[in-house]
C-alpha cells in the first residue's frame, strides 16, 4: 500500500498534528509510519503526560484515561517527562492501582509531578527512585466520610506523611508544594530544595533550617498561623538571612513582629486584609525615601514597593485599594516613580482623594500601562467621585510614560492632552512636564498641541 502522506512536507504534517488533540495524534501516528516518525521527533507531544481521573464516571472512561496515558508514556521513550493528574485519586476509582503503577514505573524519568489524592496508596509513589525529579506538587484530600474517631493508619488520615526515604530518592528536588502533608520527626534534609510552598501546619514541629538547609524561597499560606521560634537561635538567624523571598499571610506577620531578621529579607510578600499591625510592620521595614512603586495586574496582584537604598522589595497583596488607605498614606509621600494599568486609574485616584496630606508630593514619574485606551478613563466615570479625582497635586512630576499593549498601540494626541489637563493639569499649569515618553505606542495627530504641557 502506497503511503501518500510521505509526499507531504514535514512542516505541513507538524501543523496538522498541532491542530489535533493528543488522543488523535496517537491514533494518527498508529496509521501512518511517516506521521509516527514525525510525532516521535516532536517532543512537545510527549513531554507532559496528563492522567485525567475525571474523564468519565464509569469504568470505560477510566480505562480510556489509563490506556491513553500508557500510550503517551510509551511514545515518550526515555525522555524526561512531567506528569499531571487532573482530579483526585480515590480508592473507588477503577484502574487506580494500575495508574499508580504506571506512575511508579516511570518515576525514574519524571521531572515534574503534580498530583492530588484521597488514597493513602499514593505514598508508594514516593518510595520509588526519582533521580531527576525537580518539582513536586502534592495535595492530600482526605475523604471526610472516612474520618474515624480513632486514628487507624492509612484509613481516613487527616494528613499524609511523606516517607523518610524520599529526600534520598529525589536528590535533585528543588520545589516542594504540599497541602495537608506532614513530615515525620527527625526527617532527613532535602539537600537541593530551594523553594517551599506549604501551610503553617506543615511547618509546625519541623526545624526548617535543618530539613531545608538550601532554601531560598519560603511561601507559607493561610489556614493557620506560623510562629518562628523565639528567641531565634544563630542557626535560624543565619538561615533566614539567606532567604531571598518570603511570602506570608497577615496574621503570621502580626505574631512575628519581634523576628527582625524576617523583615530584612530582600523580597517580602504579605497578603493583607485590614490588619494594621502587619501593615505597620511592612511600612517600618521600608526605610528608603526614593521608592519605586508598581501596581501589578491580577497575575501578580499587589502593590510592589522597591527601595533602591536597601535593594529590598515589599509586595502588599490586597482585595481593594481603598482598604489600605492608611498604608498608602504612609508610603506614598516617599514614592518617586509609580507604575499602574490605566484600567486601575480611577480606583487609584479615589484612594489618593481620600488620603490625607499630599501623598504624591515626591512623585517625579508616572508610568501608565495602556491595557485600555486613555479615553476609557472618562468614558465611564465614577458617578460619585467623577469630579473629585481630577487634578492631582504632584509638584515634582517631570515624566509621563505611556507603555502600549496589544489592546492599545495608538493614542490620539487629543486624548493625551485631555488626560494631562484633567488629571495633572493643576500642576502643569504652573510648570511643564520635562518629558513624555512613549514605549510601544504612537501618537496620532498634531503633537505641537502638547507643547503647552510638555
Describe, in short, the structure shown.
The protein has 454 residues and is of the alpha/beta class.
Question: What's the arrangement of secondary structure elements?
Answer:
Elements: H1 10-18, H2 22-31, H3 33-40, E1 48-52, H4 59-75, E2 81-86, H5 96-104, E3 110-117, E4 135-140, E5 160-161, H6 166-169, E6 175-179, E7 181-182, E8 195-198, H7 200-203, H8 208-211, E9 217-220, H9 234-241, E10 245-249, H10 250-254, E11 267-271, H11 276-284, E12 291-296, E13 302-307, E14 312-317, H12 325-331, E15 335-341, H13 345-354, E16 365-369, H14 376-379, E17 399-403, E18 410-412, H15 413-423, H16 425-428, E19 435-439, E20 442-444
Helix pairs in contact: 2-3, 11-12
- What gap, in angstroms, lies between the N and C termini? 75 Å
Low-pLDDT runs: 146-156
Strand order of the largest sheet: 1-2-3-4-6-8-9-10-11-14-13-12-15-16-17-19
User: Structural class given helices, strands, pairing?
Assistant: alpha/beta
Descriptive overview:
The protein is an alpha/beta fold and 454 residues long. The protein has a domain at 286-454. A 16-stranded mixed beta sheet has the order 1-2-3-4-6-8-9-10-11-14-13-12-15-16-17-19. Helix 2 packs across helix 3 (33-40). The longest helix is centred in the N-terminal third of the chain and has 17 residues, at 59-75. The protein has 16 helices and 20 strands.
Amino acid at each position: 500500500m502506497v503511503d501518500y502522506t510521505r509526499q507531504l512536507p514535514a512542516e505541513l504534517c507538524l501543523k496538522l498534528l498541532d491542530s489535533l488533540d493528543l488522543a488523535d495524534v496517537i491514533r494518527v501516528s498508529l496509521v501512518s509510519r511517516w506521521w509516527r516518525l514525525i510525532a516521535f521527533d516532536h517532543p512537545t507531544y510527549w513531554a507532559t503526560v496528563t492522567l485525567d481521573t475525571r474523564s468519565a464516571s464509569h469504568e470505560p472512561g477510566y480505562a480510556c484515561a489509563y490506556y491513553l496515558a500508557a500510550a503517551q508514556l510509551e511514545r515518550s521513550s526515555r525522555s524526561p517527562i512531567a506528569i499531571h493528574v487532573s482530579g483526585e485519586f480515590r480508592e473507588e476509582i477503577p484502574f487506580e492501582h494500575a495508574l499508580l503503577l504506571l506512575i511508579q514505573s516511570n518515576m525514574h524519568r519524571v521531572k515534574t509531578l503534580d498530583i492530588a489524592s484521597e488514597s493513602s496508596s499514593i505514598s508508594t509513589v514516593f518510595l520509588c527512585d526519582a533521580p531527576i525529579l525537580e518539582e513536586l506538587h502534592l495535595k492530600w484530600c482526605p475523604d471526610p466520610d472516612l474520618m474515624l474517631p480513632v486514628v487507624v493508619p492509612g484509613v481516613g488520615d487527616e494528613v499524609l506523611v511523606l516517607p523518610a526515604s524520599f529526600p534520598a530518592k529525589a536528590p535533585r528536588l528543588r520545589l516542594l508544594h504540599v497541602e495537608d502533608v506532614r513530615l515525620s520527626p527527625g526527617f532527613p534534609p532535602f539537600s537541593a530544595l530551594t523553594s517551599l510552598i506549604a501551610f503553617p501546619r506543615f511547618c509546625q514541629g519541623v526545624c526548617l533550617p535543618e530539613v531545608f538547609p538550601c532554601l531560598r524561597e519560603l511561601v507559607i499560606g493561610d489556614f493557620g498561623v506560623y510562629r518562628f521560634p523565639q528567641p531565634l537561635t544563630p542557626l535560624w538567624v543565619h538561615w533566614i538571612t539567606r532567604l531571598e523571598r518570603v511570602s506570608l499571610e497577615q496574621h503570621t506577620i502580626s505574631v512575628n513582629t519581634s523576628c527582625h531578621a524576617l523583615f530584612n529579607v530582600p523580597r517580602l510578600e504579605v497578603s493583607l486584609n485590614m490588619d494594621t499591625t502587619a501593615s505597620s510592620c511592612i511600612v517600618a521595614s521600608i526605610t528608603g525615601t526614593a521608592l519605586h512603586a508598581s501596581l501589578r495586574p491580577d497575575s501578580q496582584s499587589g502593590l510592589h514597593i522597591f527601595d533602591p537604598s536597601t535593594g529590598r522589595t515589599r509586595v502588599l497583596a490586597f482585595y481593594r485599594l481603598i482598604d489600605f488607605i492608611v498604608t498608602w498614606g504612609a508610603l506614598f509621600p516617599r514614592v518617586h516613580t509609580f507604575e499602574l494599568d490605566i484600567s486601575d486609574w480611577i480606583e487609584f485616584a479615589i484612594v489618593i482623594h481620600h488620603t490625607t496630606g499630599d501623598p504624591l508630593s515626591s512623585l517625579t514619574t508616572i508610568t501608565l500601562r495602556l491595557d485600555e485606551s486613555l479615553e476609557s478613563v472618562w468614558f465611564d466615570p465614577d458617578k460619585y467621585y467623577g469630579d473629585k479625582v481630577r487634578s492631582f497635586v504632584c509638584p515634582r512630576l517631570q515624566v509621563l510614560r505611556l507603555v502600549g499593549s496589544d489592546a492599545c498601540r495608538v493614542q490620539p494626541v487629543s486624548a493625551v492632552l485631555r488626560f494631562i489637563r484633567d488629571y495633572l493639569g493643576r500642576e502643569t499649569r504652573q510648570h511643564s512636564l520635562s518629558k513624555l515618553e512613549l514605549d510601544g505606542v504612537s501618537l496620532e495627530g498634531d503633537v505641537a498641541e502638547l507643547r503647552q504641557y510638555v
